[in-house]
Amino acid sequence: MSIKSLSPQWNELLKPEFEKDYFTNLSQLVNTAYKTKTVYPPANLVFNAFNLCSFDSVKVVLIGQDPYHGVGQANGLCFSVNDGIRQPPSLQNIFKELANDIPGFVRPVSGNLEAWAKQGVLMLNAVLTVEATLPGSHKVFGWEIFTDAVIKLISDKKEKMVFLLWGNYAMGKQSLIDASKHLILTAAHPSPLARGAFFGCKHFSKTNAYLLQNGKTEINWSTQ
Fold it and tell me: Which terminus of the chain has fewer CB atoms gathered within 10 Å of its CB, N or C?
């Protein structure tokens, strides 16, 4: 993992974080893990969420927990999987809600959500790396200090953003966000473990309505 793979704009904005002791330690832990273990996503995609969605273009922030830990799944975007990979249950439920919420939405064959990122959806996992088959294994590395700083940076420096917080973990990030100038939408996690509580949140249509009200272009949620 190298911050050199991060786009120049994000690199400049996050420079104060990169210069802190915790990030030096984090980098060492992550780089050692890549050398000695099987780690996802591939090292060149650790900052994929940032590189596909510039700071200037961010309109929506979707917060996940940590990357998928199965072979070929993780591509650096929360909830997203690579083309040709079976859609995980949470992503299937996201598409089900979209079909109920957005008229004409057709569930895509691929679970790759890059198209959202390119329209201004920052799909940010709180922890950006994981060891194969061990969910949460890099939670102790210090990633959350970094990603919390990213969330606060966006909240402080931008206006009229939409933050999508699904599940108790993501909802715990609310204190980082200025609710007086952004829209915070909370819901149950789309995981089947939530027993369908995610359904009916209508976050996708609410997001687009808010963006339009504030002079921004809406998101085309169709990924294909």
Answer: C
